Amino acid sequence: MSFLKVDNLIKTYGAFHAVDNVSIDVERGKVCSFLGPSGCGKTTTLRCIAGLEQADSGRISLGGRTLFDSEKRIAVPPEERDLGMVFQSYALWPHKTIEANLSLGLRIKGLPSGEIRDRVNEMLELVGMAGTGNRFPASLSGGQQQRVALARAMALRPKCILFDEPLSNLDLLLRERMRFEIRDLLVKIGITAVYVTHDQTEAMVISDHIVVLNKGKIQREGSPSDVYNYPRDRFTAEFLGRTNIVALDRKNSNPGAGIVTAANGVRFSSLDAKRLEDRSETGEFVIAFRPETMLVTDEPTGGQNCIPATVVSSQFLGGTTQIVLDIGQGVHVTAILLGDQSRTENTQAFVSVDPRHVLVLRDSSAATPMAGTPALRVPEPA
Amino acid sequence: MTEAAMASDRVTSGAGRIAKKIDLVPLVMMLLVISILAPVAVLVYGALTSNPIGAAFSGLTLENFVEVLTNPTYQRAFFNTVYVGVAATAMAALLGIPLAWIVVRSDVPFANLLRVGIMIPFFLSPFVGALAWTLLLQRNVGPVNLVLTSLGLGQISPYSARMIIFVMGIYYAPYIFIFVSSALRNMDPALEEAGHLSGLNRRQVITQITVPLIAPAALSGVLLTFMASAGQFGVPALLGMQDRFFVLTTYIYQLINRFPAEYNVAAALGIEMLVIACAGIWLQNRITRNRSYTTMTGKGFRPRIIELGPMRWLAFAFVIAFVVVGALLPLGMLLWVSLVPYYDATFSLSAVSPIHYLKIFNQAFVWRGLKNTLFLACAGASIAVILAVISNWIILRSNTSYRKPLGYLLFLPAAVPHIVLSLALLWTYVFVPLPIYGTIWILLIAYVTSYITQAVRNVGSNYVQIDKSLEEAATMVGAARLRTWIEVTLPLLKPGMVGAWTLLFIIFVRELSASILLYSPGNEVLPVLMFNMWGEGDWGGIGALAMIQVLMMGAVIALSGLLFRVDISRAS
Ligand SMILES: Nc1ncnc2c1ncn2[C@@H]1O[C@H](COP(=O)(O)OP(=O)(O)O)[C@@H](O)[C@H]1O
Ligand SMILES: [Mg+2]
């Protein structure tokens, strides 16, 4: 039974569909992330849930209570939705102390002043900011402001808390630490949350459930490991981490038997037939496997899917080594190996791919690569 | 209560809220349409008929426009308006741009003090400046003429087109200064540094980077100044009418004050002015469209200071010269004539007496004028600021479809010269059977309408700096609209509102162009009293009133600075 339920949500700006028929179910106490490139409609969806934006059509309900229903003409105003929100800019009121920032909602609710004080202290304690109540937001660092924003969103004990890229204004180190802090906090309180981000690692750390959005549509959803390991389309695979894409020769492939052939003649066998998305006859499909599921050796391993290749380039990156290899007819793939496994260019090597991780994906338009996770360029065979 | 019933409760409460929100918009829109569009429509009607003012509807005619366009005297006035406007604007730009650059970007000594000095002429107003310069250049006794004669140079008459241009040039230079200095302050210095690193030398950086970057702001200032100087009434009235040098504003005044008054021709002249002003606005929009590079980010860059070496003292002297000509000489002169019984070109402290102050304070009409001015300035500024806050909320935060038309509507008054608007209001309220014509309320309406654009822009430039999510965050913790305003919007907007209020108060205290056509006995304001005293040659009284005006403005500036930390010399 889902707690937060979004059905067939549509939001247009003029002729442009910012949110295009999105349906989401979040279970009670779970954290759901909206993940997608900039402009895909994450914020708009979140703001429709918050009531800060009114959707054109669809339904939203929280804990069985209808918040929005275009057919029944229900639109509960945002302040009555029982939701907390952490804004991208934190939106701490600069003219109010931390204490006043946290207590405004409690005062509006009419709580007695003693209780308000206790609640404010409890919240500050919870986010590790005890004793800062008398200070003004401007005197806090970015990370501290972030914590206060979180405390303010939780002070009213909302049924659900919404995050809009809350970490994007922090520096990298702090961002990586805060991911875990927020995750731990959310789990500790056991609150239902929706978390918007364009950072796949953040989404993987924080959420129980990831919804991948592209151009206002849901592309894929599931647990972080499902979405990462078993994407169904090229967009999701490329947006979540790096992946090798190789053109598929459909005539010489038999997905039902777990055998596929690349356009350059390389065969992959013993694949997990369940994972091969080549059921429908229409649409374009590609072969995909992630760089970290590969092995590069001097001699054939004797195992399956061991492909002779030429080293095109090799780069030691510190923790890992990135090797680009030609697996025939100019088809380049990238392998990422642990530690220093550098190789000399233009030498022979053998590439093995774990058959469980070779996928056939719907070629859902080329994804727009994100900064920081460049998509691997895979030239078509000559 | 069932779930469904609860849900339907929600609907009504939700819908009620939405309805309330939208109600505000048509109300404000209606108010603005009535106060802005209706008068202009009535004016157009007035120009298209030969009926006397207030008469019932009859046939339309183009004869007024034919008269205005073909009669050589009107053609002359039109030409004079454009000539004076262009020349005064050019002079203001030639003063204002270097002044801004010196104060913001060079290492001139006492830059902050100089900045305040440069703004004094703005507060004094062109009208008071013209009064003072009439005194300074009085034949045989004006101090400036005394100095010129002692140097063996000829005397200068204050009554000429050249002096009109001179005075307006000086007193509008701070307008350009405001625009250019804020553009210079808001420019990221890294842009210039990048120019240097790309191999541009100092001169090339200025011509290829600095100038293009501040050009849109400077152009906006220039066109605004042109419209203001073309719509100026006080200066050409004081310095031009004596030698029958007429511009459109003074001609309109003439046509209405002659007997029998020629309202229809005056209306046609008003339409002509409106067309000039619209051309100015159109030009400004065309030139600066999508090119405002130095938007108000509120980031506040630290400008890169350019060292002038010994030249900085030359720059210092230039600024001081401007402050002396625009502020110190005029203020000193007005103060002196207010302190001596009769000004006779001598400057002996033994002659000082409070006679003029005693005289004016013994006159009931002066007290009345003071009271009217204070009331109009306070009420006008308050109403304009409140309307501006509501309008900005509608434009920036609401999601009604009225937003765009409202924005255009609020921009319109900027295109209507003040004397034209007051002429239009005159027509309108002679028609409208409300007890407004001939009362102080018509002045209040005229003030608010004339300056609503300024107020909206002023408050708006502060409103856009308030992150929308600050208000949304209040909504998310349960605050309804009004509560959000009280807790978040208004406190954050307070400095902007106080700044706008102070600026409007100052503008209203010295407003003449709109008041001159609309005042009636009993409803005079200070500048009108001064204008009338000028007609009677009562210089001592004028000096005393000018000092009172300066005190009023000084007090408000000091109060807003002390109580709210608003630096009015940085407001725009
Ligand atoms: N008020 C608006 N008017 C017009 N277009 C909008 C508006 N708000 C958002 N959009 C468009 O909707 C799309 C989705 O925006 P958003 O939800 O903010 O994306 P993101 O996934 O980056 O949060 C974008 O293409 C954006 O340009
Ligand atoms: Mg976003």
Walkthrough of the structure:
- The complex is a heterodimer of chains A (382) and B (572).
- Chain A has 382 residues and is of the alpha+beta class.
- Chain A folds into 2 domains: 2-228, P-loop containing nucleotide triphosphate hydrolases (Rossmann fold, 3-Layer(aba) Sandwich), CATH 3.40.50; 230-362, Nucleic acid-binding proteins (OB fold (Dihydrolipoamide Acetyltransferase, E2P), Beta Barrel).
- Chain A is 23% helix and 34% strand.
- Chain A has 8 helices and 21 strands.
- Chain A has helices spanning 42-50, 98-109, 113-126, 142-155, 172-189, 200-206, 224-229, 234-239; strands at residues 2-13, 16-27, 31-35, 57-62, 65-69, 74-75, 83-86, 160-164, 192-197, 209-214, 217-222, 244-254, 259-262, 267-268, 285-289, 294-297, 306-316, 320-326, 332-338, 348-353, 359-362.
- In chain A, the strands form 4 sheets. Chain A has a 6-stranded mixed beta sheet, sandwiched between helices. A 5-stranded antiparallel beta sheet of chain A has the order 2-1-4-5-6, with helices on one face. A 5-stranded antiparallel beta sheet of chain A has the order 14-13-12-15-21, with no helix packed on it.
- In chain A, a hairpin with a 4-residue loop joins β5 and β6 (74-75).
- The model of chain A is unreliable at 366-382 (pLDDT under 50).
- Chain B has 572 residues and is mainly alpha-helical.
- In chain B, α4 (111-136) packs across α12 (311-339) and α14 runs antiparallel to α15.
- The longest helix of chain B has 45 residues, at 3-47.
- The model of chain B is unreliable at 1-22 and 294-299 (pLDDT under 50).
- At the A-B interface, β5, β6, β7, α2 and α4 of A face α1, α18 and α19 of B.
- The complex binds adenosine-5'-diphosphate (ADP) and magnesium ion.
- The site of magnesium ion has 3 residues of chain A, from α1.
- Residues 13, 18, 36, 38-44 of chain A line the site of adenosine-5'-diphosphate (ADP).
